[in-house]
Amino acid sequence: MDCGGGFGPYGPRMANDLSVDIRKRHAGGPEIAAALRLPLDTHAVTVLFGPSGAGKTTVLRLIAGLDSPDGGSIRCGDEVWYDGARRINWPPQKRRVGYLSQDYAIFPHLTVRANVSYGARGGPVQDWLVRFELGELADRYPRQLSGGQLQRVGLARALAADPRLLLLDEPLSALDAPTRLRMRADLRQLLAGVQAPAIVVTHDRTEALALGDSIAIMIDGKLRQAGAVESVFDCPADADVAAAVGVETICPARVLSRSAGLVTVEIAGAPLVAVDTAGASADVYACIRAESVTIERHPPGERNPPGNATSARNRLPARILSVIPEGPLARVTLDCGFRLTAIVTRQSEREMHLREGEQVTAVVKATSIRIVPRGLD
């Protein structure tokens, strides 16, 4: 498991990057605090990810200049867009940012062509209409368009302004589920083809994985972890981040011993061996993804049947609490002395006759358990 770096919120500022270190407090809400940095000389997509109410949209609007921070700074290359101490605050139009809100903010009284033309400075409008497959819709009005078509109009208009940075706020949230599924791949392809870096806000884990090159996790108004998408999802820094990125089992655990880079922890009386990633902490959380749990059935008391050699260090007797179908998969909740969730195929569920109350063995590799200090969450 590679838990190496990726882009981060700190480090020396480069000449051609976006550097954000801001704070903002809304009445009755938590203070929003974000420090992040991303290069502008790549066309990478950074996902700003977290639960609803975490402050993601606020950060996006502060970068765009649609709201003003209470303090801090925003720098884009050699330009200072905002500096609270020096009372610098550039208006949105001067920042050259393409901003797409959740509802796309398409002008209802203008045709598709007129919407894309609004503020255009990045080449002939017809080129943008063709690029986004809007040529045949150019004379239609927004009320005559589908959700996916409206999204393409919004993106075309944002990019026609020749932005140096593209900001997208939950760009797929207004679409129904089938359309959202189709547009996810289209959006990734569109973002890969534009000549500008992008920041995309989402609270959907599938969208974050599909769209992002890098990710920044926000929880309760604070930026908690940043890095390459796979690194953050595989190696959450603490229990809150683990929950945010969809780790199904997060249990408090006590360290029993450490040796040769491995740690043995106890959860509700059950010992588990994991790779030691918790430093010197004695009180930790063990984080286990459902897809990392394998279920086996064999005669009671036979812990490792002949011919079933495995590298897994953790084999736990378990009782099935529930089996919930989820399309081609099934979510199985197990009682191992603690609750453990597994994801299996429906075919495996049928072949093993997994039913509530049945006794099985849950198998988890040591490398699949993420140990984080309990004091950080």
Reconstruct the topology from this structure.
Elements: E1 17-25, E2 31-39, E3 45-49, H1 56-64, E4 71-76, E5 79-83, E6 88-89, H2 92-95, E7 97-100, H3 112-117, H4 125-131, H5 147-160, E8 165-169, H6 177-193, E9 198-202, H7 205-211, E10 214-219, E11 222-228, H8 229-234, H9 239-244, E12 249-259, E13 262-267, E14 270-275, E15 283-288, E16 294-296, E17 314-326, E18 329-335, E19 339-345, H10 346-352, E20 359-364, E21 369-373
Account of the protein in words:
The structure is a single chain. The chain is α+β, with helices and mostly antiparallel strands and 377 residues long. The protein has 2 domains: 17-240, Rossmann fold, CATH 3.40.50.300; 247-376, RNA polymerase II/Efflux pump adaptor protein, barrel-sandwich hybrid domain (OB fold (Dihydrolipoamide Acetyltransferase, E2P), Beta Barrel). Helices cover 22% and strands 35% of the residues. The chain contains 10 helices and 21 strands. A hairpin with a 2-residue loop joins strand 4 (71-76) and strand 5 (79-83). Helix 4 runs antiparallel to helix 5 (147-160). The radius of gyration is 24 Å and the shape is globular. Mean pLDDT is 87; it is low at 4-11 and 303-310.
Question: What is the assigned CATH homologous superfamily of the largest domain?
Answer: P-loop containing nucleotide triphosphate hydrolases
Secondary structural class = alpha+beta
CATH T-level fold name of the largest domain: Rossmann fold
Distance between the termini: 22 Å
- Strands ordered across the widest β-sheet: 7-8-9-3-10-11
Radius of gyration: 24 Å
Shape: globular
> Would you identify the regions where 5 or more consecutive residues have pLDDT less than 50?
4-11, 303-310
Number of domains: 2
Let me know the average pLDDT.
87
| Residues in helix, % | 10-25%
Largest sheet: 6 strands, mixed
- Tell me how many strands there are: 21
